[in-house]
Amino acid sequence: MGDGTAPLRIGVLGAARIAGRAIAEPARATGAHLVTVAARDRDRAAAWAAEHGVEQVASGYADVLAHPDVEVVYNPLPNGLHAPWNLAAVAAGKHVLSEKPFAANASEAEQVRDAGREAGVVVSDGFHYLYHPVMQRLLELLASGELGELRHVEAVTSTPAPDDGDPRWSFDLAGGALMDLGCYSLHAVRVLGAYAGGEPSFVSATADERAGAPGVDERLHAELGYPSGATAAAGCDMAASERDMHCRVVGTLGEAVVTSFVQPHLDDRLVVRTASGERSEHLGTRSSYTYQLEAMAAAVRHRAPMPTDADDAVATMRLIDGCYVAAGLPLRRSTQAAGLP
To answer: Of 10, 206, 212, 341, which is most buried by a Cβ count within 10 Å?
Structure first.
């Protein structure tokens, strides 16, 4: 699918609000080509294509997958449609960049991973924040020993509530605060486990349901532990009074806070506090989505490792499922079980 230096050729499933920031702007920044886009409303797809310089408007999602010039499919559809269209893209021989969460549950995630492995294509989960220099610098600090041994991690993702009719409140579309926001917190806790002996395990989880939306979490809080004895707290709130996206790590010699780990382009500070004082490092406001697309291009063109690959996605989805079980809420149902197309 092209030589080692050719720009990626991307097909987009849906004119979701996230797609402009997550794929159109990074494509412009990296020189990738947006070949085609489809949406449930063709007029909306046409407007999105005109705004973002997409070459063609497809009649439907299947036509995006069948387009011979498309080599990477970007999937920003509602959560419940991630796995089925990721599977369809893999079956069409396309590489996949899926918005997080990767699937409705861990079982679906495993299906996508296995299909991608068999097809020999790159399948990636969209935890873009990890590719930004802010998060990479936090990992570098922990590796350097400046903060000592890692003792505690706190990752918080909170935003004001979307409208009641938003698909993020739909159980059948695999909605909920943990699926939309808290997956970032859990992913960060997982990533930081590399400095605390490995993957975290559950201690407890509590959740509040959204009024009028049975089974859908409005907020969720999980306590976890690492093999080293270090602890972690992962929280999310999709009906908060204000936005808060911080990640804090505490070591035996100091602590560091990424003030906006999910959206570092809005606030690129890393605040470090040790016995020698406090300092703020600024790591740049270039979009984390642009770094992610560059990593995707390297994976597709040169088989470079993708940290947020399908194995990583499965591990995150297992943690999400575990949170729901521990909090007494039902797992998000697979698409077929939910009666979706």
So the answer is: 10
What's the pLDDT at 245? 98
What span, in angstroms and rounded, lies between the C-alpha atoms of 35 and 65? 11
The reported pLDDT for the residue numbered 2 is 46
Rounded-to-integer distance, Cα 35 and Cα 52, Å: 11
pLDDT given for residue 1 in this prediction: 43
The residue written with tokens 């984390």 in the block is 288
The residue count of the chain comes to 341
* Own/partner long-range contacts of 160-165 (Cβ < 8 Å, ≥24 apart): 160/239, 160/240, 160/241, 160/242, 160/243, 161/218, 161/238, 161/239, 161/240, 162/238, 164/212
Residue 82 region by backbone torsions, left for phi larger than 0, else alpha for psi between -120 and 50, else beta: alpha
DSSP sequence for 137-196: HHHHHHHHTTT-SEEEEEEEEE-PPPPTT-GGG-TTTT-SHIIIIIHHHHHHHHHHGGGT
Query: What does the buried/exposed string (b/e) look like for 262-271 if buried means 16 or more CB atoms within 10 Å of the residue's CB?
Result: bbbbeebebe
Residue listed under structure tokens 């992610």: 292
DSSP letters, 295-315, are: HHHHHHHH----TTBHHHHHH
**94 noted as active-site residue:** no
Beta bridge partners of 280: 271
Residue 27 in 3-state DSSP? helix
| Ranges of the chain whose pLDDT falls below 50 | 1-2
